[in-house]
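Lab notebook, bench 4. The sequencing result for the construct came back, and we need a structural model before the next group meeting so we can plan mutations. Quick request posted to the team channel:

Model the 3D structure of this chain.
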Amino acid sequence: MWGAFQKLLDTVRLSLHFRGLRHQMLSSNLANVDTPGYRRKDLPFEKIMQSYLTFKSPLKTTHQRHFSQRERTIEDFLRTSQPSTLGTPNNVSLEEEMVNLTENQLLYESTLQALSKEIERLKEIITEGGR
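Done. Here's the predicted structure in token form:
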């Protein structure tokens, strides 16, 4: 029971963290919409989360001469998923950035609502089990 709930909490924590990072990037794009030479930045949220969810844990080493394989960190997922910086200078579209920012905010809030519902469900399970 707690293992599944802990995995859910870890996934939600990462999701909210990445949504926050993406919000910062999109806000920066909006702030620099008229800056000459500025290039837009974005975080490929779906690609990063897919990479995180499908990542298999490293193999266990049983001998000191085995190659060690370290666990991946959030920074590893970000580093491998950075968008390319190719494009024309000042490629920021005000309308597109506003749409992306609004979508990101709605998804952030829906993630929080889903977590809240899951916690309510868990509380109900605990209180019903005590009767």
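The mean pLDDT is 80.
Will bring this to the meeting.
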